[in-house]
Amino acid sequence: MKHSLVVEKFEEFLKGESLKLTPQRRRILDRVYATHDHFSADTLYAWLREEEGPQVSRATVYRTLEVLSRGGFVAGLDTGDGGMVYEHVLGHEHHDHLVCMSCGRIDEFQDHEIEELQLKAAAAKGFTLVSHVLRLSGFCGPCQEKRESQGKESETK
């Protein structure tokens, strides 16, 4: 989706919330849509501090992420370790996540069979599915190899 359309939709959403598109909110929106990585609020704040532009407080970052989330511009992902990361989602196809419990790596995936099973499960319970978040936790390849090699080391001691 073109960035100008994202900005336009954000302005419309803000008007509906009786809020204005301040230079700080615009800067946060622009930075969020400039990355394709998952990021924490603190990471976003650090990026904004390193770059030129209107000064943005940590509180403004947190409040604006909440607004962006409410409006469907970003989605939050609980990393399973008490942390929350975000990604921009407007104009992007739905996907699910694999989260490494060791290094925090996040891999995205799509599986139409899983999507169909979820729809069937919801229908069987009389639910009309509107949205969902699927996070699978485990260990990425490199971390699993490290765990296995550490396990072998402890067996020999």
What does this structure look like?
The chain is an alpha+beta fold and 157 residues long. It folds into 2 domains: 1-91, Orthogonal Bundle (Arc Repressor Mutant, subunit A), CATH 1.10.10; 93-157, Dna Ligase, domain 1, CATH 3.30.1490. The protein contains 6 helices and 5 strands. The protein has a 3-stranded mixed sheet, with no helix packed on it. Strand 1 and strand 2 form a beta hairpin. The longest helix has 16 residues, at 141-156. The model has no long low-confidence stretch (mean pLDDT 93).
Task: List the topology elements.
Layout: H1 3-16, H2 23-32, H3 41-50, H4 58-70, E1 74-78, E2 84-88, E3 96-100, E4 106-109, H5 112-124, E5 135-138, H6 141-156
Parallel strand pairs: 3-5
Antiparallel strand pairs: 1-2, 3-4
Helix pairs in contact: 2-4, 3-4
Count of alpha and pi helical runs = 6
Number of domains: 2
* CATH H-tier superfamily of the largest domain: Winged helix-like DNA-binding domain superfamily/Winged helix DNA-binding domain
Classify the helix fraction into a percent range.
40-55%
- C-alpha geometry: flat
SSE string, helix = H, strand = E? HHHHEEEEHEH
Round the mean pLDDT to the nearest integer and report it.
Answer: 93
- What is the first-to-last residue Cα distance? 56 Å
Low-confidence runs of at least 5 consecutive residues: none
Q: Total strand count, please?
A: 5
Main sheet? 3 strands, mixed
